[in-house]
Amino acid sequence: MLIDWARATQRILDADKWLNPAKFGGKEHHIWFHETSQHVIKTTHSEAFGRFPEAGHNSIRLREGNIREYFHRLTLSNWLFGDSMFIVGIALDEWGHPRIITAQPAICGTRPGDGRVEEYFDALGFEPTESPTIFYRAKDRLGAFDAHPGNLIESHCRTQVYAIDVVVDEVGDELARALETSVKEARRG
After folding, report:
1. How far apart are the C-alpha atoms of 20 and 30, rounded to whole Å?
2. CA 180 to CA 189: how far, in whole Å?
3. Tens digits of residue pLDDT in 42-98
């Protein structure tokens, strides 16, 4: 289905051009800087489409996601964080597996200083949970996960923090209950 969509929209990309430059990354992507466009290029790992939250026994964890969840997450990130991330296309790796390639404007800065991540999410109406990397906004059941300083950038002039790789998702009933409990525990602190 994904490959069919990419072919129909002429978004099958040359793997040598789009996959080989990627030199580093994390659990979700390989990353490289496209100098001409001044964008950060992210390529998903082979047959992996991001990480998504789920409630477990007395915990909240991130699991491997699917294509639909990954595209929805990109849409939510653009809406919530004011991002302008977009899908460049799909490249097939050496095994013929699709890898989604996205781009977002490069932002110069450093990791946010103490308290800045919390301030950023507070300004967006999120509450902290017991985990320092998870925030929750009950009014629309949005969770922000993996929100550690490595996934945000503070501008050099220290006036703005940007989320660059935070997992944002609309949560279901079970996860909402777990997050609400975690927010209550954090308030008791």
Report:
1. 10
2. 14
3. 999 887 888 889 887 778 888 888 889 999 999 999 999 998 999 999 999 989 999
Kindly provide the residue ranges of all beta strands, DSSP E only, lying in 93-141, ordered along the sequence.
98-105, 109-110, 127-128, 135-137
Model pTM above 0.85: yes
- b/e code 93-107 from CB counts within 10 Å (16+ = b): eeeeebbbbbbbeee
Does 20 score more than 90 pLDDT?
no
86-92 and 12-13 strand pairing: parallel
Q: Tokens 């939510």 identify what position?
A: 76
Pair of tokens at residue 106: 């490069």
Give the number of other Cβ atoms within 10 Å of residue 57's Cβ: 4
* Residue 31 pLDDT > 80: yes
What the block records as the tokens of 189 is 């602190």
Name the H helices within the chain. Answer: 2-8, 15-18, 67-81, 116-123, 173-188
Beta carbons within 8 Å of 72's beta carbon, 6+ residues apart: 169, 170
27 CB-contact burial (10 Å; exposed 0-12 / middle 13-18 / buried 19+): exposed
Strands 59-64 and 51-56: antiparallel
